[in-house]
Amino acid sequence: MLKFVASLAIFASLSTFQVHAGSLFSEKTEAWLKKHLEVSKQFAVSLTKNKIKFNGCQQKDYKLSMSLQLSDNTSVETLALYGRGVLEFGVFNQRVTSRSYEVISWWHNEDFRYGIATGLRPAHDLDLPMSGSLALPDSRTLSVYLETDGFKEDHVLSFAMRRETWLGNTSDLALNWDKSYDNQLQLGYRISF
Predict the structure, then answer these.
(1) Within 13 Å, how many C-alpha atoms sit on residue 147's CB side?
(2) Are 65 and 45 in contact (CB under 8 A)?
(3) How crowded is residue 17: how many other Cβ atoms within 10 Å of its Cβ?
(4) CA-CA to 120 of 20 to 30 Å: which in 97, 130, 143, 163?
């Protein structure tokens, strides 16, 4: 258990470390993380990177996931996500940086996997050339997930219900509300290649 707590501390510090993500989060970094953090078959680490780029726009997203299998049908997963986007259109240039953290408790049976999660999105920053940098409101999320097999073996059908609470007193902007809510239903179909 002590190794798991130490791993979570390393996980949190890596996810808040601000460098150019392309050099930090690479295949070598994932291999190093797996080598040093996978202490048993019940503990797994993964690092994924998504990137899109076209004229005037580029976006990179990174997800660091650590999972601990507690029993045959229960597990705990922690996620740290880092995203950075840039729009370059002269005086309308924008730079957005986002971080979020989530802890999910999963229960498994033969046909389904369902989970309950809590998440936090602090330091959602927006940089504008005319006004400088400002922090958007923090948000907290409560989620319920359901996953099952898709039409083929490597397909996953997922369903999520989320309630995100935006906290108005954590913003650099003068907001006329203390809290705002966003309720979401998400349906997804994932195919592994």
Answers:
(1) 15
(2) yes
(3) 10
(4) 130
